[in-house]
Design goal:
3 helices; globular; four-stranded antiparallel beta sheet; alpha+beta
């Protein structure tokens, strides 16, 4: 069935291309027959573009005082702006229970610049920065009706509160199934890695 579909598509494409006349009268078409385009074509003549003109040119240097939008360039946003200007400092409180190995406790994390009592503040802030993009909440719960593997990742639980990217955070984590384990692992080292 797939072979028949591919063969039909190939034959259709060949037929469509052979029906398209050449841009210049008298040149052979794809099917090898002379073009049926009259000498006075209603289409404008197109001259080939020299290869030298296809070399990319550098854009002018962008002064730091101007944004990329001033040049008409849309850059992907890595972090959304704060909801309120006074919330430009990202601060989180991470409370971990049942992780073992000295990972239990309550830790403060401040980012931009990184600091606080979190044992790996710089890496935790970097991980959160990479996970924060427009339209995605790095602390979002597993969507309802998600099919998850039935595996147990241990008794560890975590509660993250505070402000991130100017938005309030109140997220709970556990390792009760495959989806929750994946959600937890996506935020390591903000949350402690699995202990063996």
């Amino acid at each position: 069935m797939l072979r028949r579909l591919l063969l039909t598509a190939a034959v259709s494409a060949t037929a469509a291309l052979s029906a398209v006349p050449s841009a210049v009268a008298g040149t052979p078409s794809i099917a090898g027959t002379p073009s049926a385009v009259p000498e006075a074509s209603p289409l404008p003549a197109v001259s080939p573009v020299p290869a030298a003109s296809l070399v990319p040119t550098a854009l002018p240097a962008v002064p730091s005082s101007l944004s990329a939008a001033a040049y008409g360039v849309a850059l992907p946003a890595i972090m959304p702006p704060p909801a309120r200007p006074d919330d430009s400092v990202d601060r989180l409180t991470v409370t971990v229970h049942g992780a073992g190995g000295g990972a239990d406790g309550t830790f403060e994390l401040a980012c931009h610049p990184a600091g606080g009592s979190h044992p790996d503040a710089v890496e935790a802030c970097d991980r959160l920065d990479r996970k924060t993009t427009w339209g995605k909440d790095p602390f979002a719960p597993v969507p309802p009706d998600t099919l998850c593997t039935m595996q147990y990742g241990g008794p560890a639980t975590a509660h993250v509160t505070g402000t991130w990217a100017g938005r309030p955070v109140d997220a709970r984590y556990d390792r009760s199934d495959g989806c929750e384990i994946s959600r937890w692992n996506a935020l390591v080292p903000l949350l402690p890695g699995a202990r063996s």
